[in-house]
Structures are given as structure tokens and as C-alpha cells.
Amino acid sequence: MFYPDDTNRLRADVLNLLDRFAPPSQRLKALIAPHAGYIYSGRVAAAAFATLRDSAQEIKRVVLIGPAHYVHVPGIAIPTVSSFETPLGRVPVDLEALSTLADLEFVVRADGPHAPEHCLEVELPFLQSVLASFQIVPLVVGDALPNDVARVLGRLWGGPETLIVVSSDLSHYHSYEVAKRLDGATAAAIERGDWAILSPNQACGCHAVAGLLIEAVRHGLKAQRLSLCNSGDTAGARDRVVGYGAWMFESTEA
């Protein structure tokens, strides 16, 4: 539904999107990227993932977190499966890392929420195209509070080997001009680290974004904007648009 199922075409599409951006020299700790169909949000996602090219060799684990769209989750869902698969191949799940979350009362082990979910899956071809070899820690957020997300991210924070990717779109189904205004305000809040004002009306992954912002402040990191637009700028009509943004958090670790 969101990208081609043909291996060669998918690889070519992703590389073409990534090649539009020159990677920065910074080492990255975290990214926020959108999760719509590539025709709509692919270039915004590419702006995020292209930043990883210079540090690709040292990243071995990606904490991949986004909102539950289809199955109700009373907290945060972690899978039991050993890998996720895209047309570009299988990506192993870091089961050891997931086991460190088992004692948290809001963490549930369940494959059901992951099975139909697109918000994590659409980020994988970008990661597979940029990183050499990595494991994922897949987390689907339902009713969890931002501080719950922050607790999880704190446990998984790690060092230069660990990247955090939060998957979230912005406003949904407003007119083009209204969306620009709303998404501009949301972007400014993210860049201020003002997590408490974020709501589902501003970003479908608001709890995951807010949790990242809480933990980023603890580590002295701030969001840097890479791209901001909506589907009216890419491939859709302008009467009912979806907003997309990309941000990076530069690592301060030696």
C-alpha cells in the first residue's frame, strides 16, 4: 500500500529519494520521520534518513517507535517475532533489548498490533538502504503516556551504536493553508522541546514524539528541522492534506 513490492523498483525509488540530499557531518542520535506512502512523504523521510550516511557503519541498533493505527494497545506493544521483512530483505529484531522492558507495567508483548501496522514498516526500506547491518527494537504506542515512552527510550538510549527513529505524520485532513499554520506551530513546539502541548490533532505519533523530546532534554539534545511540507506540496489535492516533517537530534556522545 505504501511502497512498491518489487525489490529492484523499491531499492531504486528509495535511493533516488536519498540521493537528493547531501548528508551532514554530524553524528545523529535520533530522527523524526513521516510514514505515509512514498509518493506523498518519501522525500521528507529521505531528508531524515540521508543524514545517517556518514555514521552508518557505527549504528547497529535502531529503536523504531510509532503510533498504533489499527489495533488498540493499552500501553506500548512489543513483538515476539525474530524479524521484520520488506522486499529488501529481513531485519532482525533485538529480542535481548526487548527483554529489558518486560518488567514495565505498560509494556505488552503482542504481535497483533504490529501485524497490520504501517508506521514502522515504511521506515525500514530507508534504513536498509543506508545502514550496513542493524537490528531493530520495534515499539507501537497506544495509550501510553509521554513519560512512559521516555522511560522506555531511557532504557534503550545506549551509545553511538543506537539510533532512535520516531515515526509520525503531522496534521490530518485540513485545507492546505490551515495545515501549514497548524504544522508550523507543531514544528516550533518540537524545536522548543515543548512536548506537553502536543496532541493527536497535531501529530498522530504525538506520544512517541513527546517521549523523545522528554528524553532528549535530559541529554541536552534539541530538534533540528530538516523538512516540513504536506501532501498538497507533493502528490495530493489541497483541500484535505496530511502534514509531514523531519527532524534530527545531533549526538553529543564521544
Explain how this protein is built.
With 254 residues, this protein is α/β, with parallel strands linked by helices. The chain has a single domain (7-250), classed as LigB-like (Protocatechuate 4,5-dioxygenase, Chain B), CATH 3.40.830. The chain has helices at residues 7-18, 38-49, 95-99, 124-130, 146-156, 176-192, 206-218, 231-234; strands spanning 28-33, 61-67, 76-78, 83-86, 89-92, 107-109, 135-141, 162-167, 172-174, 223-230, 241-250. The strands form two sheets. Strands 1, 2, 3, 6, 7, 8, 9, 10 and 11 form a nine-stranded mixed sheet that branches. The chain is globular.
Largest sheet: 9 strands, mixed
- Could you state the oligomeric state of the chains shown? single chain
Ranges where pLDDT stays below 50 over 5 or more residues in a row are none
What is the averaged pLDDT score?
A: 96
Indicate the CATH class: Alpha Beta
Distance between the termini: 41 Å
| CATH topology (level 3) name | Protocatechuate 4,5-dioxygenase, Chain B
Write the layout of secondary structure elements.
Blueprint: H1 7-18, E1 28-33, H2 38-49, E2 61-67, E3 76-78, E4 83-86, E5 89-92, H3 95-99, E6 107-109, H4 124-130, E7 135-141, H5 146-156, E8 162-167, E9 172-174, H6 176-192, H7 206-218, E10 223-230, H8 231-234, E11 241-250
Helix pairs in contact: 5-7
Concise structural overview:
This protein is α/β, with parallel strands linked by helices and 254 residues long. It contains 8 helices and 11 strands.
